Amino acid sequence: MTGGTIADPRVLRTHRALHDAMVALCLEVGYRSITIDQLVERAGTTRATFYTHFRDKEHLLAAIAAQVVADVLDRFEQQDGAAPVDRLHVLFEDAERHPERLRVVLRGEGDGVALRLFTERVVDVITEIDEAARANGAMPLAVDAELAVRAMAGQIIEVLRWWTDIDTPDFTRLPIDEVVAQLRAVANLGRLSTSDPRRVTIHHEETSP
Known about the structure:
Layout: H1 9-29, H2 36-43, H3 47-53, H4 57-77, E1 79-80, E2 83-84, H5 87-97, H6 99-106, H7 113-135, H8 145-165, H9 176-188
Antiparallel strand pairs: 1-2
């Protein structure tokens, strides 16, 4: 780093090459089968260079996870004119832009650190969406808010995994706008009015002896 803020272009190129090599090999042979020799050969570098930047392949995978999260955060902070970005839409735009990298994350490769980091970021997104909905007069959720947010995050992550893996001639991938709209429709089912017969509130009741 130069002045603590600007990375050396050569370092950036090395990191990018090793990131790309890890992603490609994870998808080809699986994380557990990858060796350092395979990584440096695919990246066009040397073992000495690898160990200058990373302790081991686990460190490299964690760096990829951190980069995925950082890229999503950067996109979240972007503004389109005066309007803030639609963060749920951004998740799917990034999935469309970098499907291979996201597949590695969503598979839980390594010890699952990439998936855990990504899951927590999705939880943050859903929490903000819920808070904004309630601020705009939406009904409160019919179940525990934390449980609902975690459940919705799981749904989004599974839909992302499914959506990025769809690439066959006999199946057309749904447009991003439609996927996001349908996910929001699912979330809104938890905001039915108390008089709506479709709403079921769960209570824990103790049975008297």
